[in-house]
Predict the 3D structure of the following.
Amino acid sequence: MADVKCLVCGVVFDDSLGKCPVCGVGLENTEPVQAAPKTEAAVSSNKRFLILGGGIAAVSAAEAIRAQDSGCSITILSGEGRLPFKRTLLTKCIAEGLPEDAEIYPADWYKEKKITVETDKLAMELDPVAHRVRCADGSIYYYDKLIYALGAYPFVPEMDGVGLEQVQVIRLADDVVKIRELLAKGGRALVVGDGVLGLEAAWSIRKYGCPVTVLGSGKGVMGKQLDAGGSEVLEAIMAKKGLDLKKNARSEAVLYEGDRVTGIRLKDGEEVPGDLVILSTGVRPNTFLAVQAGLEVNKSIVVNDKMETSAPDIYACGDCAEWRGINYSLWSEATEQGRVAGTNAAGGDAAYGGVEGAVIYHGMDIGLFSAGDKGGKEGVEYDVVEKQKDLDAGVYEKYYFRDGRFCGVILIGDTSAMGRLTKQLAEGAPKEEVL
Ligand SMILES: Cc1cc2nc3c(=O)[nH]c(=O)nc-3n(C[C@H](O)[C@H](O)[C@H](O)COP(=O)(O)OP(=O)(O)OC[C@H]3O[C@@H](n4cnc5c(N)ncnc54)[C@H](O)[C@@H]3O)c2cc1C
């Protein structure tokens, strides 16, 4: 057993797991991690650190605070009703249910680190002047430093019928339990959204044994990650794997009889029959407390390189934060931003540097990897090399270069090179080294 680092999403994990617990790539895409020399915490204070949110950004911040300060109190307030868990598993585990070891860390870890996790505390009010948070049950928490890590919630389009029981989103562990209950009744599932999470959910439902139709609003699928050629290959794979797809399908209303869902009506009037609707239509950052407290908020909470917000003693990180105008909504970035926020809040010195976004899709028995800039910048000339495209074999390999330097890639089928390519993307490797 040894710790390894995933070269694709940056997560460090124990190699006995056999694959990355976050993005699912195999051990061939990892590198050994030198065990960090045990260093003493720099200080032992009696400060109060309060962390809002029970996701990976919160846990990562708590871990970083404890590494800096051995004496301070650390309290995590989460409204989720359970210990922080690997949210990335949710769309991947509908067929078999959430595994028992889904927690990021077991309860003993928090005890050992002297981190208090309150799992039923919904924060309702933040007073940055009084340094105080009020929860839904009336309890009050005071802080010296606050980490705002409230994540995001699913976007639900405004249309008739979305409030029905058979219309679900996927963000919480309970969502998967509910979806499995509904699937057990049989019928066809309609997945609204052809992004990575929509297609992961669709495949998971197919594996469960129910027929699925994916309703995508674009001309192809995974419009953010794939170009037209990549989409064509993925569509062929979906057809082979028994996933129905409707493109240019803009949903207008959920159809129902009484309280039973019967399908979806599209904007062009077509009615697509189905018994369960899964909405995978994006997320919105959880900023309401920040807005109410007067913090600077664009689409998400504005933070600088140290993850400081516009208010003294308040840091933000993860899916609720916006760094240089970017909200990544990626596990690896929530982890890193949490580390930076926690380190700085506890008096250390860390800066966040950002990444070129990479996405891995695992489903339909294929690998798919899309990373970097794939020709998306206006006025920039790209040198594009399509090495392979085979609809029958389900293979696609395309590379993008800017000024002779590697800047983007799409792989479908064999993704075994993605560890190497991720490194070369970060370095901006020359073309002859990449191909
Ligand atoms: C189904 C699914 C699959 C995904 N798959 C991938 C993947 O394969 N790879 C990848 O990189 N990323 C993936 N992501 C994105 C990744 O999970 C997120 O980027 C990451 O979880 C963000 O962590 P966070 O801590 O910022 O926020 P969250 O995980 O959203 O945590 C926020 C926490 O705050 C709590 N909270 C909210 N409001 C309150 C309140 N008022 N009071 C108290 N607590 C509150 C929430 O209950 C939650 O516990 C996936 C996301 C989902 C939903």
Q: What stands out?
A: The chain has three domains: 40-153+284-345, 167-281, 359-434. The CA atoms of residues 308 and 315 lie 4 Å apart. Residues 9, 22-23, 52-58, 77-80, 87-88, 90-91, 122-123, 149-152, 170-171, 197, 286, 318-319, 329-332, 334 surround flavin-adenine dinucleotide (CB under 6 Å). The domain at 359-434 is CATH 3.30.390.30 (Enolase-like; domain 1).
